[in-house]
Amino acid sequence: PDLQSLLQLPDTTVARLGPEWRRKERADVAEGDEVWLDMGQDLLFSFFQRLRTNIYNVWNYPSEAVHRGEEGACLLRMTFDRSGEVVNVELLLTSGYPALDRAAMAAVRKGAPYGALPSAYPKDRLVVKAWFRYDLSRSRTRGSDIYGR
């Protein structure tokens, strides 16, 4: 047998596994729960990539916070409609510094729109939770990192 025939899966296996290979879905997305920002390969990868890129492009480290040596991370809950517009931004946990919290929330709004949600996403809205971290050792002009759990 040649290499191609060795690598070829039987038709019954392809038929059985095909839908699972094409379907990129997470249980929390299927159930409609809020999701953590997760850059793993899944249904929302392209949306999350645009979200992070757009936010990084407009997210500044407040100069007054830099001068005071303020660092920390805040947790935000962000709601988007099907077109990728921001519906709501909510502070769930503070960084301990109001200027940092306000700047993170403002960056989410300034970075919009984020492009449409994937057509395979079943809901009209997407709720995403993410940490926004400020670290002076990484940057004194930009927010440092956006991440999930």
Keywords:
149 residues, alpha+beta, Fusion Protein Consisting Of Minor Coat Protein, Glycine Rich Linker, Tola, And A His Tag, Chain: A, Domain 2, five-stranded mixed β-sheet
Task: Summarize the topology.
Elements: H1 3-7, H2 11-22, H3 27-31, E1 35-36, H4 45-58, H5 63-68, E2 72-81, E3 86-93, H6 98-110, E4 125-134, E5 145-147
Parallel strand pairs: 1-4
Antiparallel strand pairs: 2-3, 2-4, 4-5
What does it look like?
The protein starts with a helix and ends with a strand. The protein has six helices and five strands; from the N terminus they run H-H-H-E-H-H-E-E-H-E-E. The chain is globular and about 70 Å long. The protein is α+β, with helices and mostly antiparallel strands and 149 residues long. Strands 1, 2, 3, 4 and 5 form a five-stranded mixed sheet that branches. The chain has one domain: Fusion Protein Consisting Of Minor Coat Protein, Glycine Rich Linker, Tola, And A His Tag, Chain: A, Domain 2, CATH 3.30.1150.10. A hairpin with a 4-residue loop joins strand 2 (72-81) and strand 3.
Largest sheet geometry: 5 strands, mixed
CATH class descriptor name: Alpha Beta
Unreliable stretches (pLDDT < 50, length at least 5) are 14-32
Mean pLDDT score, rounded?
83
How would you concisely characterize the structure shown here?
The chain contains six helices and five strands; from the N terminus they run αααβααββαββ. It has 149 residues and is of the alpha+beta class. A hairpin with a 4-residue loop joins strand 2 and strand 3 (86-93).
